[in-house]
């Protein structure tokens, strides 16, 4: 009677031990699989994070390059506009200088003409007196002769002055026309470049 009971107890213990070991093995395998899966998930997450970081860096580089290119383009446009304004300012300064010099020449010429007129008046009066004294002419006769001579000389002086004024006006007109043509070409070129870059 005792032997079967002992055998049954031993068998039960052995079965329990085998069951324990089997459950322990299964549990360990499950833990191992969980660790493997966790490692795979972690690695996948790290890889995805690296890819996202790399993509973000590349995108940041692209954006920075685009911004740098745009800044360079704007800077070049500003430099061109500044150069154009500097040229325009220089042209205006040069034109102002020419106008000022022309006014000075005109003032000088006016002063010279005033002096010349005074000299002519003095010479006229002196000549009138001498002519009356030498030729025994009446005042009206002497005045008529002198007026004819003065008119001749005045016409010659006026013709010379008019030729000089016409030459200077023609030169000034040609300079102004060249400046206007140059400015028009620059404006058209600037608008053409602006149309291309926009």
List keywords for this structure.
rod-shaped, 198 residues, 0% strand, mainly alpha
CA-atom Rg in angstroms: 55 Å
* Mean pLDDT across every amino acid position: 77
**Pattern of helices and strands:** HH
| Relative helix content | over 70%
Distance between the termini: 108 Å
Tell me the β content: under 5%
Shape: rod-shaped
The domain tally reads 1
- Put simply, the count of helices is 2
Number of strands: 0
Sheet with most strands:
none
Structural class based on helices, strands and sheet pairing: mainly alpha
Oligomer: single chain
Task: State the low-pLDDT regions, or none.
Answer: none
Structure description:
There is one protein chain. The protein has 198 residues and is an all-alpha fold. The chain has one domain (2-197). The chain is 97% helix and 0% strand. It is built from two helices and no strands. The two termini are 108 Å apart.
State the gist of this model.
The chain has 198 residues and is mainly α. It has 2 helices and no strands.
Question: Which secondary structure elements does this structure contain, and how are they paired or packed?
Answer:
Elements: H1 2-135, H2 139-197
Helix pairs in contact: 1-2
């Amino acid at each position: 009677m005792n032997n079967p009971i002992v055998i049954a107890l031993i068998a039960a213990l052995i079965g329990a031990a085998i069951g324990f070991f089997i459950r322990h093995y299964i549990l360990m395998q499950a833990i191992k699989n969980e660790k493997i899966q966790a490692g795979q998930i972690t690695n996948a997450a790290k890889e995805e994070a690296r890819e996202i970081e790399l993509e973000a860096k590349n995108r940041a580089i692209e954006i920075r390059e685009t911004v740098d290119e745009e800044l360079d383009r704007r800077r070049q446009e500003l430099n061109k506009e500044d150069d154009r304004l500097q040229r325009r300012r220089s042209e205006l300064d040069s034109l102002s200088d020419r106008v000022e010099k022309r006014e000075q020449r005109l003032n000088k010429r006016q002063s010279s003409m005033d002096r010349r007129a005074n000299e002519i008046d003095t010479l006229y009066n002196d000549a009138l007196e001498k002519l009356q004294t030498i030729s025994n002419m009446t005042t009206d006769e002497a005045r008529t002769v002198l007026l004819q001579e003065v008119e001749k000389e005045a016409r010659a002086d006026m013709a010379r002055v008019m030729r000089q004024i016409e030459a200077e006006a023609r030169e000034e007109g040609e300079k102004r026309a060249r400046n206007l043509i140059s400015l028009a070409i620059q404006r058209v070129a600037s608008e053409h470049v602006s149309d291309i870059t926009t």
